[in-house]
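Input record (one chain):
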Amino acid sequence: MKKKVVLAYSGGLDTTVIIPWLKENYDCETVAVAVDLGQEADWKTIKERALATGASACYIADGKKQYVEEFIWPALKAGALYEDKYLLGTATARPLIARILVEYARKESAVAIAHGATGKGNDQIRFDLGIMAFAPDLEIIAPWRIWDIKSREEEIEYLTKRGIPAPAKKESYSRDDNLWHISHEGLELEDPSNEPHYESMLKMSVMPEKAPDKPVYIELEFDKGIPVALDGKKMDGVTMIQTLNKIGGANGVGLSDLVENRVVGIKSRGVCETPGGTILYSAHAELEHLCLDRQTYAFKQQVTIKMAELIYGGFWFTPLREALSACVDSMQQNVSGKVRLKLYKGNITPAGASSPHSLYNPSLASFTTGELYNHADAKGFIRLYGLPVLVRALAKQ
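The corresponding structure, as predicted from the sequence alone:
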């Protein structure tokens, strides 16, 4: 009986080549696993292609609910944003895919897991670390790190020689898409001095100038940092994001052009569409301003940066990431309430927020003196607060 290898399968050119390549170089049975995270895909065709190419089986795993509840929500609550722009759409998805691959590898008694990530990118790290976290005994096969194929043209030639139809693909951007985002790389984006060709690129959004001339108001309700309702209607996480993607995309919200630092030390450029995610991050931040005290908010800013670094670098299944998520969950206990936003031609403008846990006190904030604040107390406080300044000035005299 041949050994089995589980392959992270997308139905694209790379993974179509990998199936026969594995059979030739490892003399193994290949089990293809495609994970549905909300990306636009013809799953019936993908399954048929995997089997026709030589896979012994092809499974389509629905991971949308897990993705939202176990990966997107923790990132949202942490406010995790890599290098000020990237909402971690690919980085949050890869750990879940890795975990699901291990689950199928165990069911199939596989000896290895294969993936089509290249030796230049971040995904190889995220896949490898995710697999290692749950199955340190399994071999990881990454063909791009070991085979002689060097280009798309050579991949097509490889399939042609074996009588295998190559997936039809005109010259286009390299894309990754799921429920949370769509990223675009390649073509004119490889020169940072070029303006992106948005008209031919965008899939989920319109350019701000093409958005409606009338603003759209929405109201989001959060419970302990998690969005639970839109415009008064309760929604599960998957439906929430899908709905906000449509609203945000139609109003040109959530476009990001980013030159990022990859883990391997290469700078790369891409354009991301994250309309629903951008709306949720904006609303969540407004509620935190209302509900978190100064010290907690200041420390949360540090946690935000570290969480983004960990997630981007593939360290999801680590004690530190879990500890930081536990810290964030504690901070989010009072982040509940409602936030109104105005969406207009790519912009998101706060339009009011309320919370039963609001720390905003009208008596203190008003210019009218209230019972809780005596202006005369400020003099002594400022003198003690600024004592180092005073001592230094006296010393200089």
